[in-house]
Amino acid sequence: MCVGLSAKVVKISNGTAVIDAGGAKREVSSQLLEDLEPGDYVMVHAGVAIAKITDEDDSETDQLMEEFL
Amino acid sequence: MCVGLSAKVVKISNGTAVIDAGGAKREVSSQLLEDLEPGDYVMVHAGVAIAKITDEDDSETDQLMEEFL
Amino acid sequence: MENKTVTMAHGAGGKQTSELIDQVFKAHFANADLTADDAAVLTPPVGRMAVSTDGFIVSPAFFPGGNIGKLSICGTVNDLACMGAKPLYLTCAFVIEEGFPMEKLEEIASAMEKTAKEAGVHIVSGDTKVAGKGQVDGVFITTTGIGEIQDGVTVGGELAKPGDAIIVTGDIGRHGCTILLEREDFGIEADVTSDCAPLWGTVKAVMDTTHNLHVIRDATRGGVGTVLYEIAGQSNVGIRLNAAAVPVQPEVKGVCGMLGLEPLYLACEGRLVIMAPKEEAEDIVETLRKCPYSAEAAIIGEVIADEPGRVVMETEIGTQALLPQPGGELLPRIC
Amino acid sequence: MENKTVTMAHGAGGKQTSELIDQVFKAHFANADLTADDAAVLTPPVGRMAVSTDGFIVSPAFFPGGNIGKLSICGTVNDLACMGAKPLYLTCAFVIEEGFPMEKLEEIASAMEKTAKEAGVHIVSGDTKVAGKGQVDGVFITTTGIGEIQDGVTVGGELAKPGDAIIVTGDIGRHGCTILLEREDFGIEADVTSDCAPLWGTVKAVMDTTHNLHVIRDATRGGVGTVLYEIAGQSNVGIRLNAAAVPVQPEVKGVCGMLGLEPLYLACEGRLVIMAPKEEAEDIVETLRKCPYSAEAAIIGEVIADEPGRVVMETEIGTQALLPQPGGELLPRIC
Amino acid sequence: MGDTNSEDKKKTAREIIENYNGPKVRIMEVCGTHTHEIFRLGIRKLLPGQVELISGPGCPVCVTPVSFIDEAIYLALEKGVTICTFGDLVRVPGTKMSLAGAREQGAKIRIVYSPADAEKYAKEHPDEQVTFLSVGFETTTPAGCLSVKAAKEDGLDNYSLLVANKTMPQAYEALKGSADVFLYPGHVNAITGTRLCEALTEEGVSGVVAGFTARELMTALAVALVKFQEGKPFFVNCYPRVVTQDGSKEAQELVDEMMEACDSEWRGLGMIPASGLQLRPEWKNFDARIKYQVPKMEGKPNPACRCGDVLQGKCKPSDCKVFGKGCTPQHPIGACMVSGEGACSAYYQYS
Amino acid sequence: MGDTNSEDKKKTAREIIENYNGPKVRIMEVCGTHTHEIFRLGIRKLLPGQVELISGPGCPVCVTPVSFIDEAIYLALEKGVTICTFGDLVRVPGTKMSLAGAREQGAKIRIVYSPADAEKYAKEHPDEQVTFLSVGFETTTPAGCLSVKAAKEDGLDNYSLLVANKTMPQAYEALKGSADVFLYPGHVNAITGTRLCEALTEEGVSGVVAGFTARELMTALAVALVKFQEGKPFFVNCYPRVVTQDGSKEAQELVDEMMEACDSEWRGLGMIPASGLQLRPEWKNFDARIKYQVPKMEGKPNPACRCGDVLQGKCKPSDCKVFGKGCTPQHPIGACMVSGEGACSAYYQYS
Ligand code: SF4
Ligand code: SF4
Ligand SMILES: [Mg+2]
Ligand SMILES: [Mg+2]
Ligand SMILES: [Mg+2]
Ligand SMILES: [Mg+2]
Ligand SMILES: [Mg+2]
Ligand SMILES: [Mg+2]
Ligand SMILES: [Mg+2]
Ligand SMILES: [Mg+2]
Ligand SMILES: [Mg+2]
Ligand SMILES: [Mg+2]
Fold first, then answer.
1. CB–CB of B33/B49 below 8 Å?
2. D227 bridge partner residues
3. What does D228-273 look like in DSSP terms, one character per residue?
4. Is residue D317 classed as helix, strand or coil in its secondary structure?
5. Region D271-294: what's the mean pLDDT?
6. Do D335 and F339 count as a contact with CB atoms less than 8 A apart?
7. Can you say how many angstroms the Cα of residue F305 is from the centroid of all Cα atoms in its chain?
């Protein structure tokens, strides 16, 4: 459920953020995330930025691999 | 003004008459004419029978011709 | 069909589009030339080729005497026939409103099948688009026909000559009158059915009678009056019309009387206007009267050198007056 | 034109219909084969003839990269090209909504003129109907094309063979993505323009490179994915797709990511899928890269004997999975 | 038609007209349908030089002022009202556009055969507001009144009339000097009777009531010419199969019960006191102007248009600079070019 | 992707999965997107016999009961409301028809990307009544709440939600016995955090939070298998770039402020107490059920449909008699065949 899209924040203003995914831009709500800044990566769902993420890709998975596998 | 159509009354009921012109039938108001009967000829305008006429054609004109010309 | 109505999915190009095509269109149109590919591969006509297209948006799609499917075949077949061309191939493109009843679509396809058979034309390729509810009213069909022009006959709107007799193949205005009665709610009851018919057989019969023909034109949109003005213009001739000789069904006359319309400007979908040298006229009429759709063929006037570009009528009092030129929209009038 | 909008009178078949045809359509389409008569009289193609029809109901009618006029020429020209046929003649039937701006109609006609010229096709006959306000949304165009099948090349959806390379002539899904962004108000900004283009020149170049071709298909409605499934079915072969090799513009990917759509199912209007023996593939791609509309041509997979009727993709983890079959309406999804 | 005897007589009427060599006479056909039939039959071509036929203000479409169209368009576009109308009005230019133009912009314009059908439509579509455009003279007014009566009986609150009905007597007064003989409008007289026309004789105004078939019209013209030569004011009812001295009492009473006189603007003739009709206060719920508080419209006709002069017989259509050029039935500039009965349209179509 | 190091690691995850030879284990992917990705990536084909993947109730479309569709259709067809919805719901069969079927009958159905767009549409169309179909779990609920807040700020009285939002914890309880390991839905955890999952470990319920890329998913599965072999209940957050222990406080507070728990029907699982959400009384003006007095609907699913069993992992889609015959993505009989994430659809599309 809940298709998520990781995207880069390119603009912030007053509760909304413009996010960019491969050049496709759209305004989403940033009301659930404090302190967003242009350049941050967020997970977007249904027009709302629901989580700040450390990177747009899944490179962190490497650490998990090392830790558990 | 006021395209008139002479047509034959084929049915009468309560303020309305069904008139027939060459097989094209339509219901019109007969409220302006008392004592209409099936078989009568009327002059119809805008959905109202406005006058009872002596005949569907203009044969009466003959008399005028004789009288005046 | 499992679906009772046409859905957006039927227009999406996937499985359901194929289902619709297979179960409705192929089922009715099947013939050796029909393709499911991007284009049909065909043997070209021999000699000269006639090509004609027409869009059909009649509302309502079903009317006494036919439906939009029958009409869409007749219209294009007749345009080919009017060039002296035997109809060979036909394509049809449908635009269907989401929610259109599947049963009605089948009825349309079945009428097309029957009419195409009668006209001897093969449906070779089609297209189906589904438009969202309200984006189109019911169903629109565009047909395009390809015909083989028969040797020895050259007809065209610019070939009328003074001295030609003008023949109409039957009583006029029935299609337009039928649609008017069905569409607008004028409360008029009249036993009028569309004259919609495929006329290649008729044209063929006339061509077999004589090659000495100048103009054949189907009097569709705009009616016989518009066709006469068109030809008067194209051939730079005058046309003298004998108003009393024009066959009009009494019911059509009655409807026109009520609504203040001129029958000469009501559409036909199964009537031809033929112009040919006077000496051929009797033979042509005789031939026509033996054909299924032209038992009431009549000579209604002649082509004259005077009054080029105009249509003059003899009036009841023996004077001559112009037929008013074809106007715009047909509007029933009160004054 | 005196009128700023299209009126019912323009569709009534009289003077104003002629005015519209003369001033808008003839002005743009004029050529030796164009007729004002019921049907055009033409010299038939030599050899075999290809005939194709398509209706165009794109909404909006104007979009980045083109308009419905350009589209209506490209669509039919490309269908002919996909049969290896040089487009010769084209008919067009318009259905126009009462009140449609005349200026827009001119713009459409002008795009058709330009595109037809580029494709080397003559517009030979047309039809104009005006539908009442709300009876149709803006303007619909149906075009029918006639082409001459070039000697020495036989292509068809049923001719794919195991071992064939599958080539796509450019990045996919741009037309569908453009329309989606214009039509629905998803609030997404992306620099995407339609790939709409006439491709006879491209096909000709490929055919001049090699006659050893099996399938040429334009990936329109339903996109490349639908075409692949169609051909897998028609030729009873499997298709192995290298998903990573399919060119997709990043913006299109981004839009698809947001809306949960698969680019393989977005419509193109200027992209071909070509299947040809592997040994020809490099030459074909090289040729394509020199043509104006296929600089990004790529080999995206191969035809296989296994999995007949199916399209399998290699996944990121090295497994194989089916490409989901083409479904119905494209619906942006949230889950 | 058909029997030899009457064929003979018909020729006689034509002969009388063609061979007229009495004094110069100006005959005004008051009725638009007469104008139309005279053209259709090519009667003008028969007339000797001293007989001049003038087309009077007898087409309800032609005399309806621009502001009325503007009011109707206001109702349709601003108030979302469904307009029901006779087809004739659809293409009449308003200040900015015609009803056909409004329809292009989404206005709902329905063409009806009868006001009764408009009322029926309102009854069947309770969610729509429906207004009938009530134009016309004595012949047509009763039909509008009957529809309002029906609406009241049916308890409708979504039906109304936009009234621009007019009455003829005041126009006769205004036109008195313009012609020697009036060809009175037969269907108006069917309602009004002939007493007024007879009375006008006493003021020196001559006229004949004419019917609408070719024979009726020719006979009426012939009678007019014969009588005119006699040199004194005359009146003859040449349409006796339809027109009586009293006319239709029922129609007169109906209209009198529901409507009252008001000043009315006639295109060309200007404001004529007491020449128009409006619904009486008891029926104000059915008066669209009151119901929708239609603002006063200052209709602006196209300045090039000479309809006004044409309608008064002061000039011929062909004297108008734009006649047949900018102004044609396909692109009418003035009302007289719209209706098949308009003098400009008739001149254009038939010559 | 791309550098050799991680390529190596990826192979390792795959190797672990392919070569698993521990005890029989049932893993339930709770999340529909996981179901979809697992099929898309062909992961099932890699699994050795002892690993069984069960598709859980994690597609909001699949668990939404028939009655909800019926309510939406009632609003659209009976009340003339403009329905805004995510595209996924459009083809879900209701008792008599789907929303697509209602659209054929003239219902106004708009597909939106976000509830915020539905609110914006309502603002721009004050003459229309607009209802957003609010389905989904913790991830989606905040978006609906934000749209209602915006509507209040904008002073709209034409915007409302038809709420069928659900919460996961109660479902975990209900499904406890159905699986050995849960593959927790990463985006739900992004909102809720991981504390509940950790707490479940104490009840003996194991699980991993998984992300959505191929590597994330494979890694999470590999981790689950490795940990499972260790023999004791475990929890690992395998999606740390998005999921934290606390989740989104802002989202939790927002939803808590505006919504309250209610009993809720899950297709397949039946009524689960306190597993649903409804707007609090302060927001009742935005609650479509209250606003339009929607009558209680007794949704009747097609009796042939085994969606309920499928959603509980009690049977496979292919065990349903109509699977692939009467029921296909083109003609879905049950909700599980509609959404690309539905288990039946995924089975059909990818096998
Ligand atoms: S020709 Fe046209 S503009 Fe001139 S007076 Fe007549 S209607 Fe008016
Ligand atoms: S196959 Fe269709 S009917 Fe059967 S359980 Fe799945 S969704 Fe329901
Ligand atoms: Mg044609
Ligand atoms: Mg035609
Ligand atoms: Mg024709
Ligand atoms: Mg097609
Ligand atoms: Mg009827
Ligand atoms: Mg085609
Ligand atoms: Mg095509
Ligand atoms: Mg194609
Ligand atoms: Mg045509
Ligand atoms: Mg846009």
1. yes
2. none
3. HHHHHHHHT-EEEE-GGGS---HHHHHHHHHHT--GGGS--SS-EE
4. coil
5. 98
6. yes
7. 19
Q: What is the whole-number distance in angstroms between the Cα of residue D80 and the centre of ligand 8?
A: 8
Mean pLDDT of chain D: 94
DSSP tag of D222: T
Output the pLDDT for position D321.
Answer: 86
CATH architecture of E6-59+169-237: 3-Layer(aba) Sandwich (3.40)
DSSP D132-188: PBTTBSSEEEEEEEEEEEPTT----TT---TTEEEEESS---HHHHHHHHHHS---E
- In the structure, which protein residues have their CB atom closer than 6 angstroms to any atom of ligand 2? F 304-307, 310, 317, 320, 322-323, 327, 333-334, 336-337, 344
Q: D137–C136: do the CB atoms touch at under 8 Å?
A: yes
Name the region of E169 (left: φ>0; alpha: ψ -120 to 50; beta: rest).
alpha
Ligand 1 atom at minimal distance to the Cα of residue E338: 7
Q: C2 and F331 in contact by Cβ < 8 A?
A: yes
Of D184, D327, D335, the CB nearest to F33: D335
Q: pLDDT digits over E15-72, tens only? A: 999 999 999 999 998 888 898 888 888 898 899 999 998 887 778 888 888 999 999 9
| Residues from chain F contacting residue D188 (CB–CB below 8 Å) | 113
- Quote the minimal CA–CA distance from B37 to chain C in Å: 20
In this prediction, residues D243-268 reach a mean pLDDT of 94
Note whether A58 contacts F213, CB cutoff 8 Å. Answer: yes
Domain boundaries, chain B: 5-68
Q: String of b and e for E130-168 (b: at least 16 CB within 10 Å)?
A: bbbbbbbbbbbbbbbbbbbbbbeeeebebbbbbbbbbbb
Report the chain B residue with the minimal C-alpha distance to residue E249. B32
**pTM of the full structure:** 0.91
From the CA of E68, how far away is ligand 12's center (Å)? 42
Task: Return the CATH architecture of domain C164-322.
Answer: Alpha-Beta Complex (3.90)
- The tokens describing D147, both together, are 């082409």
- In sequence order, the β-bridge partners of residue F279 are F259
* Shortest-distance Cα residue to atom 7 of ligand 2: F334
pLDDT, one tens digit per residue, over C135-190 is: 999 999 999 999 999 999 999 999 999 999 999 999 999 999 999 999 878 999 99
Strand order in the sheet with F51-55: F51-55, F25-29, F181-185, F206-210, F235-237
User: Residue ranges of the domains in chain C?
Assistant: 8-149, 164-322
- Cis amide prior to D60 (ω within 30 degrees): yes
CB contacts, 8 Å: D132 with chain E: 103
Q: In this complex, do B1 and C335 lie within 8 Å of one another by their Cβ atoms?
A: yes
Bridge partners, F235 (sequence order): F207
How far apart CA E67 and CA B15 sit, in angstroms, is: 36
CA nearest neighbour of F13 among D173, E346, D319, E324: D319
Phi-psi category of A14—alpha, beta or left, where left has phi over 0 and alpha has psi -120 to 50? left
Q: Look at residue D107 in the predicted model and tell me its pLDDT.
A: 98
Q: Which residues contact D117 (CB under 8 A, 6 or more apart)?
A: none
Amino acid at E4: T
Q: Would you list the domain boundaries of chain F?
A: 6-59+169-237
Looking at domain B5-68, which CATH architecture does it have?
Roll (2.30)
Helix (H) or strand (E) holding D321: strand D320-322
Residues of E in contact with D133 (CB under 8 A): 103-106
Q: What is the DSSP string of D32-90?
A: TT--SSSSEEEPPPSS-EEEEEEEE--SSSEETTEEHHHHHHHHHHHHHHTTTEEEEEE
Give me the helix-helix angle, E4-18 and E214-230, nearest 10°: 50
Q: Which residue of A has its CA nearest to D185?
A: A26
Ligand 1 neighbours (beta carbon < 6 A): E 304-307, 310, 317, 320, 322-323, 327, 333-334, 336-337, 344
Chain C residue at shortest CA distance from B3: C335
In CATH terms, the fold of domain D8-149 is: 60s Ribosomal Protein L30; Chain: A; (3.30.1330)
